[in-house]
Specification:
single chain; 327 residues; mainly alpha; Methane Monooxygenase Hydroxylase, Chain G, domain 1; 15 helices
Amino acid sequence: MAWYVAHDLIGHAQPFFAPIAAVVSLGTTYGQRLRRVAEVTLGVAIGVFLGDAITHVLGSGAWQIALIVSLAMVSALLLDAGAIFVTQAAVQAIVVSTLIPDPGKAFLRWSDALIGGVVALVAATLVPRAPLRRPREQVAVVIRKVAMLLRSSAMRIEDGDVELALATLADARRTDGLIAELRAASDEGLSVVASSPFRYRHKDDVRRMADLVEPVDFALRSTRVLARRIAVACYRGEPIPSAYSVFLRDLADVTDLMAGELAANRMATTALEPLVGLARASSHLQRTNVLSAEAVLAQVRSLIADLLAVAGMDPLAATDELPPLAD
């Protein structure tokens, strides 16, 4: 389409860069399209200008290419540009300085880039619904991971297996990528509803899921710390009351309920009541003189507050649902 517009409608003889600019602008994700189009267009403009100007004065050769590319990349970096901007400035400088086109063709190359970018933006308005589903699907993935880690931690309280406890901790520490994927999916969804009028009606749903990124991140971090405290207790042979294991399993069941609601594109408000019940029950769990056990209890209560926030409760109000610990 970009070639058709530039060649057949506008009359450029060889608009080879129009389809290239369209592909680069679209990229492999739906996020940051407007920025990519701007970076491609401006990068081409800088690269073409410097390539034409310096080649006209100094000619073409190895050292001229090195000079042109250096100036093009430095100019782009001074504009605080992104990677695509810098790369396009360098690439176009190389193309111009080696092919030595007619100086009058410089504007055509820049306008081809603009045509490709516009075509990419038009295509972006027709995106499928997949980017709108990804945020809620990824939220559910993270919450299910929390439930899985809770069940695994409960088993380690019961059997005290050091190796398995360390394996659970290692698994918990590998979850940063899940949050990175969630943030990317959220940004992508917001970009789609912002750029596509056909998807604008989904704005509120996508925004609600985007607002969950931070509390979900906190919940996963709390789970990671919990797994660490249980691993330490297993390593030191410090006993943790069996009631804590039962409590973690109950919390995992509620967490799975939340994941199911979120996967169905619903806020996990149905989990509020059972979470509040667990928050209040946590204040009556058995106390011990073992430091690791007390740390586990404190971390479980922190996780409950985080999950209450994921379910839609104000974070400060969530902490109010945790009564003081009984003596």
